Amino acid sequence: MKNSYKIYTAALLVAAALSSCKDKNGFKIEGEVSNFGKAKKIYLLAADTSTVTMVDSTQIGADGKFEFKRSTPYANLFKLRANDAIFDLIAQNGEEIKFKTDLADSAHAYEVSGSEESQKIQEFNKVSNIYSDKNTKLVADYQSKAAAHANQDSLLKIYTPIFQTNLSDYSKAVLKFINDNKTSLAGFYAATSLDAMRYEAELVKYADDISGNFKDNPSVQKFVKQMMLAKPLSVGHKAPEFTANDINGKPVKLSDFKGKYVLIDFWASWCAPCRAENPNVVKMYSLYHDKGLNILGVSLDTDKKDWQKAIDADKLTWQHVSDLKRFEGATESLYHIEAIPSNFFIDPQGVIVAKNVTGLDLEEILKKTFSKP
């Protein structure tokens, strides 16, 4: 028993000594690459949600080994780049990260240890790569058939739903990952890959859940702030009241539609995606107006003639208003409109029940709403 106690005590002392040798003011990456060919250097990139910056580079030794010693003010996403291969790591001061890969591997698989967060981001990338590979194969299959197919519209009708299903499955996998990893920075970087308009409600909830985490990381704090601004305008919240003039200068209020379903549709004559979506909105209006659907078009035009011309050309027979100030209008500011088309589907109690739904998504939500007994 005495010998066991001595061994245990010695092990603790060795572990403490090793820990004290680590640089708490910086991190180290010890790497090894095989089959590096003509690659003379490896580069270290610092990344956030919007920019990637090269912060260091070093020679690859004849034995394929390299080393970086850096410091970071907060745990952050870094990337190693050699030739065309890029590998994700999340590093923080005090870590000694071991990295190993074979540059001849087209899948860019790699081994990493000494950083739990780096292992987490590697885990997410494996999930992401599954759906990326599916999309690559889908696009290649479509292109090969399109080259010999006269009617590409019919092909698109076949492939578009497959692509949308793949995208939906990927998003579900991401949502599961971020909800399973709320205390991990890897979860945050995974969340930034979601369509912020389509999954706003889920991202608002996620931001709520992580608001007390990663307080020193500016990218995370910026994301949380943006989601908190979006929260009052997310699904489940009351749509804010506004007043804007119709094309004849008569004021129209959102509360004029109290007790009714109304789709607030932000668009403009100069917006090509808006004009492309208009036929679908016209179709939905013709199907469901008699069942209770109302639409209030809010144009971001600045010229009344252009606005009226587009209304007539696209046969938009519902009520329209505009501040005639593009994105700087009072209504646009109130609803935080930063891109169009954008819409809010409001129930008779004035609550937002859907947001930024177009195409098949709009058709589905309206069908569910107006097929109720």
Characterization of this structure:
The chain is an alpha+beta fold and 373 residues long. The chain has helices spanning 2-21, 116-146, 152-180, 185-191, 200-210, 218-230, 272-288, 304-314, 330-334, 359-370; strands at 27-34, 41-47, 52-59, 65-70, 76-82, 85-91, 96-102, 110-113, 243-245, 251-253, 261-267, 293-299, 319-322, 342-346, 352-355. The strands form 4 sheets. The chain has a 5-stranded mixed β-sheet. Helix 2 packs antiparallel against helix 3 (152-180) and helix 7 runs parallel beside helix 10. The longest helix has 31 residues, at 116-146. It is elongated, with a radius of gyration of 27 Å. The model is unreliable at 1-21 (pLDDT under 50).
Radius of gyration: 27 Å
Large-scale geometry:
elongated
Determine the strand fraction and express it as a percent band: 15-25%
- Oligomer status: single chain
Q: Strands across the major sheet, in which order? A: 13-12-11-14-15
- Quantity of strands, as a count: 15
Whole-number mean pLDDT: 91
Range of helix content: 40-55%
State the end-to-end CA separation: 77 Å
Biggest sheet statistics: 5 strands, mixed
Low-confidence stretches: 1-21
Derived from helix and strand composition plus strand pairing, the structural class reads alpha+beta
SSE run = HEEEEEEEEHHHHHEEEHEHEHEEH
Count the helices. How many? Answer: 10
